[in-house]
Amino acid sequence: MGKAQEKLLDFNAQKGKAKNGFLFFRNTKSLDHIQTYFWRILVVVGLMGTWEMSARFKLINSFLMGSPSGIWDSTVRMLQSGQLFTDTQATVFATLIGFVLGSLLGSLVGLLLWYSGLVARILDPFVVALNGVPKIALAPMIIIWFGSGIYSKIVLATDLDTWYS
């Protein structure tokens, strides 16, 4: 075998081709990645299957937990009716408005606390107490105060962005 043929075989081997033209794995790292993805997919399929069977055999409350097939059916129905796009648009709108308002309000409060020592000392226990409350614990109260419409979503997004970012 000549030097040109050896270089060609070496070049093909580096590209992942054996000299007979079949693909092979250059190292075990590629094989490990495939095995890892296989097991990840298997875990997801197993969890989804367990969830579906638990809902069908009434081991879990399917009204509270749903089921993968029910979620799929609802998604297809909402896609066909266009409701999914409308609801997504409303959610994105509320999130963006809440983010902008929360960023502005948070920046103003931060600057106020930074530049005014008196205000910082007065508000410090309240800010510390508010940080101790779980972020989503105020959601039911906000929904009661502002209703279940777009305003409560904006207020919740604003609150989360103002105090917790």
Structure report:
This protein has 165 residues and is an all-alpha fold. The chain folds into two domains: 1-81, no CATH class; 82-165. The protein has helices at 3-14, 28-56, 62-65, 68-81, 83-115, 117-132, 139-146, 150-164. α5 (83-115) runs antiparallel to α6 (117-132) and α5 (83-115) packs parallel to α8 (150-164).
The residue-averaged pLDDT reads 86
Coarse shape? extended
Q: Strand fraction band?
A: under 5%
Q: Quickly count the domains.
A: 2
**Rg (C-alpha, Å):** 28 Å
- As a percent range, the share of helical residues equals over 70%
Instruction: Detail the poorly predicted runs.
Output: none
The H-and-E topology, N to C, reads as HHHHHHHH
Work out the helix count.
8
What separation lies between the terminal Cα atoms?
67 Å
Structural class: mainly alpha
How can the largest sheet be summarized? Answer: none
Question: What order do the helices and strands come in, and which of them pair?
Answer:
Elements: H1 3-14, H2 28-56, H3 62-65, H4 68-81, H5 83-115, H6 117-132, H7 139-146, H8 150-164
Helix pairs in contact: 5-6, 5-8, 7-8
Protein name: ABC transmembrane type-1 domain-containing protein
Membrane topology: Multi-pass membrane protein
Subcellular location: Cell membrane
